[in-house]
Design a protein that fits this description.
Helices cover 12% and strands 40% of the residues. By secondary structure, the chain is mainly β. The protein has 5 domains: 324 residues, YVTN repeat-like/Quinoprotein amine dehydrogenase (Methylamine Dehydrogenase, Chain H), CATH 2.130.10.10; 174 residues, Methylamine Dehydrogenase, Chain H, CATH 2.130.10.10; 70 residues, no CATH class; 97 residues, Immunoglobulins (Immunoglobulin-like); 246 residues, Rossmann fold (3-Layer(aba) Sandwich). Helix 7 packs parallel to helix 9 and helix 11 packs across helix 12. It is globular.
Length: 963
C-alpha cells in the first residue's frame, strides 16, 4: 500500500484515511440530518489541504481540505473572506478532495466523499450558494477540471471512469470515458481542449473527442497531473520520486529525479515554472525552470510534513499548503513571503493533575514512549492557561503484573495494528485494529482499574478488558488520537483534530457502551481558548468562542452554514455551567446547580438558529459604485420560532440613523428591508445584523468603494475621556502608575491636534477626582460632543471586579463591599460605547493585582464585560491590557504599566518615532498598534501578560496617530 513507507505519523494518518475513502464498492454510512454539528474552526484548515486555486483576477485564493471546508482568502490581506460548505456527516462524509474554478470565475466544482450519491457539487462562486449536484459516479470523485474554453467539466473517480459534463447545458452529462482499470486520480485539459487523465492503474491516458487517443504505461501509480501551454507533467505514488514531462502528444520528454516524493504539480500561468509539493522526507517543495529544460530553480523547506496542494499567483509567487499544522505559504526563490494558518495545533502530549489539563503541541518522538513534552496547562478552577510546570500524570503501559506492547498486523500489516496484552511477560490476548475501527493502536495504556484504553485513527478511542474484549467506545474525536493521560476517574485525550477531551471513567463502571466527553477544550496558539460541554454551553477567553461553532446542514443539495458559538452568546455562554460541570461530572447536574442562581434550561440549538440575511441589492458583496449613496435591499428570514427583535445597520462599524428608520415590509418567508445609505469615506464597510432573543445572525458585510471620491478634505476631531486611579480611598488597593498612564495618553493625543485631527478635546479624571459621579459625567460629555465624523477614545486604568455577574470599574470612592452604590457598572460604559456615532477605541487596563473585595482576592476578569460589548455588535475597537484572571504588570523602571508603555512607544510619544509604523507611511493604524503592543508587552513581561485587541470585521483599518 502507498502509506506503508511514509515516516511521519500525520502522513501515515492521511494515507490510512485515503485507503478507507478511495476503495471502490459499497460503503455504509449514517446520513446526517439538519441537526447542528458542533465543530472546531481554528481560523485555518485542520485537515490535510487537498487543493489550491487562484481566481483569474488574482484577488482570491481558494483552498479545500479533508476538514470538510472550502475557504476563500483575500490575497491582499491574507484574510478569510468566506467558507463554502456542504452536507457533512459522521466519519469521512463531507471531506473535500478536489476543486476547480471555471475560467470566468463563475462556477466552483467540488469533488469528494459526498454521500449518498457520490455527487459533484457545483457552487456559484460569488455567493457560495449550491447551484446543483451532478449524479452519475458510483464512487468518490478525486479530481475535477474545466476546459480552457469553460464549456466542459471533467471529473475523475474511484469508480475507474472519467465523465464529461456540458457546462452551458447546466452541467448535463454528455459522456463517460472508460479506459482506466483502477481509480482515476487526476484530470486536466490541454490548451486545445483535449483531456488527459492519470490513475492508480499506472496509466496516463490522452482523450480526444471522447475516445482514447493514446496511453502511457508507467511503473508506478500516477496521482498528480498538470498542464501548461507546451507541456504535461505527472507524478506518482510514494515509492516513485520522479516527475515525468511529456509533450502534448504524450511523447516523454524528460524524467526529473526528485529528492522527495513530488506531489500536487502546478505550472505558472506563463508556463515558465513548474512547482511540486512534498510527500516524503526531506520535506522540500521545489520549483523547476521550464525555460532551462526543467532544471531546479529553488527549494522551500518550511513545511514539516506532507504538502500536496500547490499553485502560482499571477506574479509567479509559489503557494504550497500542508505540514503538520496545515499552513499555506507564499514564497519566492525559497524564501517565505507570507503565510496563512489557523490557531490550532495537533496535540502530541497530554497530562493530568487534579486541578488542570496539560498538553503539548511539539512532536519529538514516539507518542507511545510519552517523550513529547508537556508545554501548557489549563487551570480548571481559574480558567487560566499557563506553563506546564509540574509533573502531570500520563497513561501507563503497565499495571500490576500486566503490560502492553504492539506488533505488526491488521488489514495492511502496520507495525502497531496489533495490541498485545501480557501478564508476567506471557501473552494473554491480542486486539487487532482494522480499517473499520481505527487501523492502528497509536497510543495506549491502562486505567487505574486495569482496563485498557487505545487511541487509533479516524477518532477511534476504545476501552477493552484484559481479555481483549471491547468494553466501550469514547465518541467525540474526529482524527488520530496521539496522546492519553489518566488521573483517578478522569481520562484526557489529545488528537490531530486539535482538541483535548476530558472523559469520566466512572461511566465505564456504570456499564455504558458509548461515552461522550465531559469537557472539550480548544486552545489556540494566540492564547485564546474555549471549553464546551456536550450540549454546547461554553466558557471562553475574550475571543475564544470564534473557534468553535455549529455546522448546519441544508441537505445534500443545498449549501450548509456555519455559526460561531459567539452567535449564541446570550444562550450558551455559561462559565457557571462549565465550572459546575467540572465539579459535578455531569452536565445535567451542572444545569441544576446553575439554576439555583439563574434561570437555566437545556438549550436545543436547532430551535434557536439565528436569522438568515440574503443580499438583494446591490448584487455583489464587493462593489464599486458611482456616487456617494448606496441603495441597500436585504431579505431577512427567521430560522426558528423566535421573532426577530432587532435589525442593525452599521456603516464603517458604527450604528446609523437608518437603523432606527429602516423601511420594512413582510415578504414571503421573511422581512424585506430597504434603505439608501450615505457613504462617508472612499472605501466603506456596510454591515447588516439581525437578532432574536436567543441568537444573532452571521453578519452580512459589504465592501463598497466609490469610483470618484466626492469627499472634501476634512480633519475629524478626537475626543478623549480618561480615568486613572492609583490612589484609592482604601490604601490597600493603591496602584502605582494608573494616573501617570492616563496623563501620558492625554499628552500623546493632544500632540495630534492639527496633524491627524483638526482639534483634540480631552477630559481626564484621576485619583481623588475620579469619583463615580465624575466618571459618569465624563461619559455624558462624550455623548453630548461626539459626531459621526469624529473619533472617540476611552482610556480607563484602575481596578475592575466582577460581582453577581456584573462587572464594575472602581473609582476613588468605590467600596468593594457596596459595589452597586459606589462603583461604576459596566453597563454605563457599554451604553456610551455602543451608542456613539463615531469611531470608538476603548483602551482598558483594569486587570491589576491588589487587595480588593475586603482583603479577599476578587475576580478581576474583564472577559465577560468585553463579550457584552462584542454581543452588542456596535463595531468598536477594544484593546485590553490583559484578560481572563491574569494581571497587568507595572514596574518602576518603566514608569508605566506594560500595556501603556507599549502604547506610548508604538505611537511615538517619547522618542518621536512611530515604532508601530510598520509600512513607514508616517501614520499608525489600529492594526499596526495592535501588532506592536502584542509583541512589546510579551517582550516586556516575559510572556506573563497577554493583551487582547478586538477589531470587528465591520470596522475598516484606520489611522490613530501620525507624524
Amino acid at each position: 500500500m502507498k502509506a506503508s513507507r511514509l515516516l511521519s505519523p500525520v502522513v501515515i494518518c492521511f494515507f490510512l484515511m485515503c485507503m478507507l475513502l478511495f476503495a471502490p464498492g459499497k460503503r455504509s454510512f449514517a446520513q446526517a440530518g439538519n441537526e447542528p454539528i458542533l465543530t472546531v474552526d481554528s481560523g485555518g484548515h485542520k485537515g490535510i489541504i487537498k487543493g489550491l486555486l487562484v481566481s483569474s483576477d488574482n484577488r482570491y485564493l481558494i483552498s479545500a481540505s479533508d476538514d470538510k471546508t472550502i475557504r476563500v482568502w483575500d490575497l491582499k490581506t491574507k484574510k478569510e473572506l468566506a467558507k463554502i460548505l456542504g452536507q457533512i456527516g459522521l466519519g469521512s462524509e463531507g471531506k473535500v478532495f478536489a476543486i476547480a474554478l471555471s475560467p470566468d470565475d463563475r462556477w466552483l466544482a467540488v469533488g469528494g466523499y459526498f454521500l449518498p450519491d457520490d455527487v459533484i457539487r457545483i457552487y456559484d462562486f460569488s455567493s457560495g450558494k449550491l447551484h446543483r449536484v451532478l449524479k452519475s459516479h458510483s464512487n468518490v470523485v478525486h479530481d475535477v477540471a474545466f476546459s480552457p474554453d469553460g464549456r466542459v467539466l471533467a471529473s475523475g473517480s474511484a469508480d475507474k471512469t472519467v465523465k464529461l459534463w456540458a457546462v452551458e447545458d447546466d452541467f448535463r452529462l454528455v459522456r463517460t470515458l472508460d479506459g482506466h482499470q483502477n481509480s482515476v486520480y487526476g484530470v486536466a485539459f490541454l490548451p486545445d481542449n483535449r483531456l488527459a487523465s492519470v490513475g492508480d492503474d499506472e496509466q496516463l491516458i490522452l482523450w480526444q473527442d471522447g475516445r482514447l487517443k493514446k496511453r502511457y504505461k508507467h511503473s508506478h501509480d500516477l496521482d498528480f497531473i498538470a498542464v501548461s501551454k507546451d507541456w504535461l507533467a505527472v507524478s506518482g505514488s510514494q515509492g516513485d520520486k520522479q516527475i515525468l514531462i511529456f509533450d502534448h502528444n504524450l511523447r516523454l520528454h524528460k524524467t526529473i529525479s526528485s529528492p522527495t516524493k513530488p506531489t500536487g504539480l502546478s505550472f505558472s500561468r506563463d508556463g515558465r515554472l513548474l512547482l511540486a509539493g512534498t510527500g516524503t522526507s526531506p520535506r522540500l517543495a521545489i520549483v523547476y525552470d521550464v525555460t532551462a529544460d526543467f532544471c531546479e530553480q529553488s527549494r522551500f523547506s518550511k513545511h514539516d510534513n506532507l504538502a500536496m496542494a500547490t499553485a502560482f499567483l499571477a506574479d509567479n509567487t509559489a503557494v504550497t499548503a500542508g505540514g503538520a499544522n496545515n499552513e499555506i505559504y507564499f514564497w519566492k526563490n525559497g524564501k517565505a513571503l507570507a503565510h496563512i494558518g489557523g490557531s490550532g495545533r495537533a496535540i502530541w502530549a497530554a497530562g493530568l493533575d487534579r486541578g488542570g489539563l496539560h498538553w503539548g503541541t511539539t512532536w519529538k518522538c514516539d507518542v507511545k514512549k510519552h517523550a513529547n513534552p508537556l508545554e501548557h496547562r489549563f487551570d480548571l478552577n481559574s480558567f487560566v492557561i499557563g506553563d506546564s510546570d509540574i509533573a502531570a500524570r500520563r497513561i501507563a503501559s503497565s499495571y500490576q503484573d500486566w503490560s502492553l506492547s504492539h506488533r505488526k498486523g491488521g488489514d495492511y500489516g502496520y507495525s502497531d495494528a496489533t495490541l498485545v496484552i501480557s501478564k508476567n511477560d506471557q501473552e494473554e490476548a491480542r486486539i487487532i485494529r482494522k480499517s473499520s475501527n481505527g487501523y492502528r493502536h497509536r497510543v495506549y495504556g491502562f486505567t487505574g482499574e486495569g482496563l485498557v484504553i487505545s487511541g487509533g485513527s479516524n477518532g477511534f478511542l476504545t476501552a477493552y478488558n484484559l481479555d481483549g474484549k471491547e468494553v466501550a467506545q469514547f465518541i467525540g474525536h474526529t482524527s488520530v488520537i496521539w496522546s492519553l493521560a489518566v488521573e483517578g476517574d478522569r481520562l484526557l485525550s489529545g488528537s490531530d483534530d486539535q482538541t483535548l477531551k476530558l472523559w469520566d471513567l466512572g461511566e465505564l463502571r456504570q456499564g455504558k457502551k458509548k461515552i461522550y466527553p465531559l469537557l472539550n477544550l480548544f486552545a489556540g496558539s494566540d492564547g485564546e481558548w474555549v471549553a464546551w460541554s456536550r450540549s454546547g454551553y461554553y466558557a471562553a477567553s475574550a475571543q475564544g468562542d470564534k473557534y468553535v461553532g455549529f455546522h448546519v446542514n441544508g441537505g445534500p443539495e443545498k449549501e450548509a452554514r456555519f455559526y460561531p458559538a459567539s452567535r449564541f452568546q446570550s444562550s450558551l455562554y455559561r462559565p457557571d455551567i462549565i465550572q459546575a460541570l467540572i465539579i459535578s461530572g455531569s452536565e445535567e447536574e451542572a444545569i441544576r446547580i446553575a439554576s439555583r442562581s439563574r434561570r437555566t434550561e437545556v438549550v436545543d440549538t436547532a430551535s434557536i438558529l439565528p436569522p438568515l440575511i440574503e443580499l438583494i441589492k446591490p448584487s455583489q458583496l464587493r462593489q464599486e459604485i458611482d456616487g456617494d449613496r448606496l441603495e441597500l435591499q436585504c431579505l431577512i428570514t427567521p430560522q426558528s420560532k423566535h421573532p426577530i427583535t432587532e435589525i442593525q445597520l452599521l456603516v464603517n462599524g458604527r450604528p446609523t440613523a437608518e437603523s432606527r428608520a429602516l423601511k420594512r415590509r413582510k415578504s414571503k418567508g421573511g422581512i424585506l428591508i430597504s434603505r439608501e445609505l450615505a457613504l462617508p469615506l472612499e472605501s466603506n464597510v456596510v454591515t447588516v445584523i439581525a437578532r432574536t432573543a436567543c441568537s444573532t445572525s452571521n453578519p452580512l458585510v459589504l465592501e463598497i468603494t466609490k469610483q470618484q471620491s466626492q469627499e472634501q478634505i476634512y480633519k475629524p476631531s478626537l475626543y478623549l475621556f480618561g480615568v486613572g486611579v492609583s490612589d484609592y480611598g482604601d490604601p490597600a488597593m493603591d496602584l502605582r502608575f494608573a494616573d501617570d498612564d492616563v496623563r501620558a495618553v492625554e499628552q500623546l493625543f493632544q500632540g495630534q491636534a492639527g496633524s491627524l485631527y483638526g482639534r483634540v478635546q480631552t477630559r481626564v479624571v484621576t485619583n481623588q477626582g475620579a469619583t463615580k459621579d465624575a466618571i459618569l459625567d465624563g461619559l455624558d460629555w462624550l455623548r453630548a460632543e461626539v459626531t459621526q465624523r469624529d473619533t472617540a477614545v476611552i482610556f480607563i486604568a484602575g481596578h475592575g471586579v466582577n460581582n453577581d455577574q456584573d462587572y464594575y470599574f472602581l473609582g476613588h470612592d468605590a467600596n468593594p463591599e457596596k459595589l452597586r452604590r459606589t462603583a461604576v457598572n459596566w453597563y454605563e460604559f457599554k451604553s456610551i460605547i455602543s451608542g456613539l456615532p463615531s469611531k470608538v477605541i476603548l483602551l482598558a487596563d483594569t486587570c491589576h493585582s491588589g487587595a480588593i473585595m475586603g482583603g479577599r482576592r476578587g475576580d478581576h476578569s474583564i472577559t465577560a464585560a468585553i463579550k457584552e460589548l462584542l454581543a452588542a455588535g456596535s463595531g468598536q475597537v477594544i484593546m485590553t491590557a490583559a484578560t481572563g484572571s491574569s494581571f497587568s504588570l507595572e514596574r518602576p523602571e518603566w514608569g508605566h504599566g506594560a500595556f501603556t508603555k507599549a502604547l506610548l512607544e508604538g505611537f511615538g510619544a517619547a522618542s518621536g518615532r512611530l515604532q508601530a509604523d510598520y509600512d513607514q507611511d508616517r501614520v499608525v493604524t489600529v492594526k499596526e498598534i495592535d501588532l506592536y503592543v502584542t509583541r512589546r508587552v510579551k517582550q516586556l513581561t516575559g510572556g506573563r501578560q497577554k493583551p487582547t485587541t478586538i477589531i470587528p470585521d465591520s470596522v475598516p483599518d484606520f489611522a490613530v496617530t501620525a507624524r
